[in-house]
Amino acid sequence: MVDPLVIERKKLFEHVASHLEAQILSGKLKPGDQLPPERDLQTRFGVGRPAIREALISLQKAGLVELTNGARAKVLMPTASHIFTGMAPAVRQMLSTEEGHRYFQGARLFFEVGLAREAARHATATDLEALAAALEANRKAIGDRERFTSTDIAFHFELAKMARNPVFIALHDQISEWLKEQRTVTLAAKGQEKTAFEAHKAIYEGIAARDPDRAEQAMRTHLEQLAVTFWQQRTHD
What we know:
The protein is mostly helical. It has 2 domains: 64 residues, Arc Repressor Mutant, subunit A (Orthogonal Bundle); 155 residues, Four Helix Bundle (Hemerythrin (Met), subunit A) (Up-down Bundle), CATH 1.20.120. It is built from 12 helices and 2 strands; from the N terminus they run αααββααααααααα.
């Protein structure tokens, strides 16, 4: 039997959170503003401290407020990173299944193929210098699994930066984190570090040549090869 008191308390905290969220989204409460003290909020909404605390914690998880011990809650400007970080538990659940892994491999393919095309069309000389430096660091790291992994991520990060869109940067960071197991398993395959580097080199060359089709195909070939290797490694294990 469901405890009615639990249901009522949940309704109270959701009511408080929804009201405060509406004030933030409407601009009545702006980034940097402090919320009223918790005691004042209790009086205003006619609820106890637990409901206020739950409401503030839910707003914190949504990236709308910052909570600091001994200080009043402060309104934040939401970031893409907050949004994607909040998805982590659901993503981990999806990645506990083979189907989930395949879904995210497909999502990464769609995302990074687009990044490669955009980079080939819009990369500046400075962008290309940074990508070339990341590629060289990746080459030098062959044989050192930990360094190769970090330089692998750094190479793809340079592509995300070229889009000059904070959502893409945040999405890249989260995909790298979500698919950490896939990268670890794949790089354990014999010769995979050299294969990955050569793929990165082909991607760079397509971008440097200002050829979107070539850059896209190089990225597609790279990620499809990674997916095949991942499933081969999983089968062997």
